[in-house]
Every structure is written in structure tokens, then in C-alpha cells.
Amino acid sequence: MALSRRTLFAAAGAAALGLSGVAAAFPRQAFALDPDGMESKMLFGDARAGGAAIPKPSGSGFYHSVRMGAIFAIPGSSVVVAIAQGRPDGVADESGNHNLLMRRSTDSGLTWSPVTGFAGATLYSWANSTLVHDRTTGRLYCFMLRRQPGSLQDEDPKVYLTTSDDNGATWTDPVVRNDLNRRSGDGRPTNDFIGPGNGIQRADGSLVIPAKGRLIIKEPGGDWVGHRVPNGLAGLPYGEGTVAERSDGQLILNYRALNREIKGAGTYPHARRVAIGNPGDWRMFGDEYWRAQIIDPGCHAAQISHSINGAPYLIHLNSASQTLDNRYAMTLRASPDDGETWTEYREALSEDPLSSEGNLAGNLREGGYAALTSTGTGIILALVEARRVLKDHPSQYDLNYRSPCAVVLRRFRPSWLVPA
User: Fold this and answer.
1) All residues at 6 or more sequence positions from 383 whose CB lies less than 8 Å from its CB, including other chains
2) Which one has a higher pLDDT value, 187 or 334?
3) Contact predicate 330/372, CB 8 Å
4) Which residue of 150, 212, 314, 364 could cross-link 96, Cys pair, CB 3.0 to 4.6 Å?
5) What is the rounded distance in angstroms from the CA atom of residue 294 to the CA atom of residue 337?
6) CATH code for position 324
7) In this predicted structure, what is the pLDDT of residue 5?
8) Span of the secretion signal (predicted)?
9) What is the pTM of this model?
10) Is residue 1 part of a domain?
């Protein structure tokens, strides 16, 4: 049976999202790339973002928060697709009824379409959008999870998949893939994560999506199949993660640890959980090796491969903090040796802060989930969460659990991180 296709920009439309006049007719223009090679703009606004706030489809106010961005530059084109999770009534995971929102650029991230609805049905929450493109067929895939409402969000989330054959202009209706759902050892449904962010296409043409405790892989001409990855320190599977292909053809997995690893007494070295190899043959690193390399306060990160000055690099973005849940020290790193070391090239995003960055009411505090993509122009694009400060000098708890969240775009030359 043929799947129906959704024309998102026509169906969701400017009017359905409360956009009209100039905002509907003309995409918002990004700033010219700064002389130092870094620019920023708000791509998905929170409820207090003024003209950048995103109206709810119901017309009753604005999305309280937008989180968990995914961004993907389609190879061989100037199209970039960005998807984020709109949270209508609160920033917390349990606030429920989360919808996926999309913006699309046709000039490598310079200008963007208005925000449109991507996935949202009844009171279910849609989350963890993860994009990958098949250069052979031209098909763009988006994996996502459909979670149950509110406090039931961790119970039996289901994997859904939608595809586009026109670079994200139209999409098939999301289809459940029960064969790809994560199950406990006895076969029962259990909590799950996909990505979020992006997958990769390997040199051999296979597609790889990171997911909790596994990789979801599609060989050329085949279907998607789950492949288990090793457990973490606490004997439990890795959580949200990233994947890249090294220049030697091996995969490098970079996963967030689970809460038991983070909060367990003396067991968590505040480092990313990393493995290098291929399904069935993984090389794991010890605690001390990674403690000094990529530290982690317990939050999702981003990782991609990118050519700089004609040489292969891995690029990584996360919070360089060893304080649990301190997500506000966002740092870019580059590895020139396939992820064996990460100490040479490092720059904090605070070196070029957001125009409204600060600790006073109304300011933004950048930090949290991140996503990266490499455009065909050599420019790198990043999505980073940014919390709205509600009172002067807020606590970390206030920022994490009370402040509305937006998603900002960072657009930069590799020379901002690795000198020519």
C-alpha cells in the first residue's frame, strides 16, 4: 500500500502557526558570517522570544519551550533540514503532548522557511528526531519516538519512521516500526532513545542510526535491523548517542551515560561512553583515558566527521563541565586522529556569546542538547539549546527545570576551531 505524502509547508502552513504578512512571505535572514567566522541566531523560539516565539497550532498562545534539535545538510545540495521538539505547556519531559517542528533552508543555512508542524498526534509526545540521507537513492529518513502522555513517557515508547524523496519538501506519514523497538532481556517493552540528531552513511553505502543500547543499520538494498552495542559501566546499555565513521573505516560511538552511572557513588568518571570498531568487534576505553579527553555532565552531545584543510577531523560539541547537569559550558572540540585524542583543538562557545547571553532576567543561557552537520560549502552548522533566564542570577535547578527553552543556530567556519 502506498504511503500518503504530506506537504508540510502547505498543510501546516503559515496561517496554521499564526504567521502572517511579512513573516509568512519572507524567510528570516541570518546575519552575515562574522569576521571571526562564527554567527548565531534563534531558529526555534520559546514562549518569551518575542517575534521568534512559535504559536501553538490551536492558536492559544505559544510553545512554552523547544528542545532537542536535529539538523542535517543533504549532500550534493544546498538544502538543510532542522527539526526540534516543541513543548506546548512546560519545559519538563513529563509536560507531555510534545510535537516535532521543522524549518528548512535551501541556501546552506543562510535563510530559513517559517516553522511548520512535522509530527504530532493527540496527547502523545513525539521526540528524538534523527535524520540520515541515502546518497544512492536520494531518500531522506527521519527516525523518531512516540512516547505516551505525561508521567507515562518512559513506558513503551515506539520507533516511528518517515521518509522524503524531495529533500524534505514533502514527507510520508510516520509509520511505526515495532521490529526496531527496544526490548528488555525478557522481551518486554522498556524505555528507549533514538539519537537525537543525525545518523551517517558509511563509505560502503550502509546507513547507521544510533539508539539506546544498539545501532539501527540498513545495508544497501536491505531493510533496517538493530545491532546491539556493549553495555556501560553499570552493566546497562548506553543511552542517547552519536556515531561517525573514522578515516580507517571503523565506527566511533559516543554515548551519554545512564543516570545510574552518573549518580552511582564512585562509578562515574564524568566522561563520554566511547567505543571504536564495528558491530560485534568493539574496542572500549577505560575510565581514566576518557576523563581527560571529553568530560560530560550527563547530557546529550553531537559528533560529526568533517574535512579541514584537506584532512579528516572529528568534530564534537557538548558541555565541558564535570558538575552533574551543568549544561552551560558548551565547547567545540576537534580530533585530528580519528578520536584517539581531543586535547589540541578546543573552543568554548562563550568566546563568541549569543547577543542576549547573560544571567539577568530575559537573557538566554546557552547549553544543553546539541546537533551538528557539515554543509557542502565547508561551513558547519550547530543547533544548541538556550534557556530563558526568568530571574536575575538563577540557580542551575531554575535553568534546567523552570526556564523556557529555545534552540539557537550556530554557523561557523572550521577555522574558528582549527586554524588554517
Assistant:
1) 43, 69, 70, 71, 82, 84, 370, 371, 407, 408, 409, 410
2) 334
3) no
4) 150
5) 14
6) 2.120.10.10
7) 55
8) 1-25
9) 0.90
10) no
